[in-house]
Write a structure and sequence with these properties.
six-stranded antiparallel beta sheet; three-stranded antiparallel beta sheet; alpha+beta
Length: 238
């Protein structure tokens, strides 16, 4: 076995502890004492918990501020694809992705093969629990006045909101900005496209035939099939 002790930079030594006394007749009645730990590891100097110790304990147990600071915190510089960021626990991220070829998955009833296909540039808006997706006609970075188009996929409401179905979405309380974006894109593209919602057809023509044709070519997604919404990028921020 290899001794890896030298690899550890931080060493934590026991300094103090707490003893909680509870009233047997009234379990809501508690009394707390603190003690120091001697050099030999034995408890010494048992005493009632002071105000200063109570305050320090409360701060140590309060993780809400720490989680709020770390939620959507970037690992480095904010990615160029990020358009808007609200890092509060109830906040959101808006970003865009360039046209690309990737694997898409469809339920068998649609008779669309599962394989790589070209998709258009997309605009994403996500919170911890909800995702909306829109399309762009250009691969140029959008500005506030850039018009948005319906994303040409199944499982979407007319508003752009994605129906995640049975996908188990788990976005942590302290996830980084990069992992947040990557997780949502994986949730979206690794799930199966299955149906149109409320008869909303997001493209011009037959969406099934559109994707059947896309699966047979490596050409860019036909922007002429996109349908413009009444939204601009500014609409997503307001």
């Amino acid at each position: 076995m290899e001794n890896i002790t030298a690899l550890f930079d931080d060493v934590y030594l026991p300094e103090s502890g707490f003893v909680i006394y509870r009233n047997r007749k009234d379990t809501s009645d508690c009394y707390v004492e603190s003690f120091d730990i001697g050099e030999d590891g034995s408890p010494i100097n048992l005493h009632p918990l002071s105000v200063e110790e109570s305050t320090a304990l409360a701060k140590a147990l309060d993780t809400s501020k720490a989680m709020q600071k770390s939620f959507l915190k970037p690992k480095g510089l904010i990615p160029d694809t990020v358009l808007y960021l609200d890092p509060s626990q109830q906040g959101c991220v808006i970003w865009y992705s360039l046209p690309q070829m990737l694997d898409l998955f469809f339920v068998a009833d649609l008779n669309i093969p599962n394989r790589k296909a070209c998709i258009p540039s997309l605009v994403w808006k996500a919170t911890k629990t909800e995702l909306c997706v829109y399309a762009l006609k250009s691969d140029v970075k959008p500005d506030l006045q850039t018009p948005l188009y319906h994303a040409p996929f199944f499982n979407l409401y007319k508003s752009g909101k994605v129906c995640m179905g049975t996908v188990d979405v788990q976005i942590g309380e302290s996830v980084s900005l990069e992992n947040f974006i990557e997780s949502w894109q994986q949730y979206f593209f690794r799930s199966y496209f299955s149906h149109l919602i409320e008869s909303h057809n997001p493209v011009k023509g037959n969406i099934v035939q559109l994707w059947q044709k896309q699966m047979q070519t490596e050409k860019a997604f036909p922007s002429g099939a996109l349908i413009k919404t009444k939204l601009t990028l500014k609409s997503l921020i307001q």
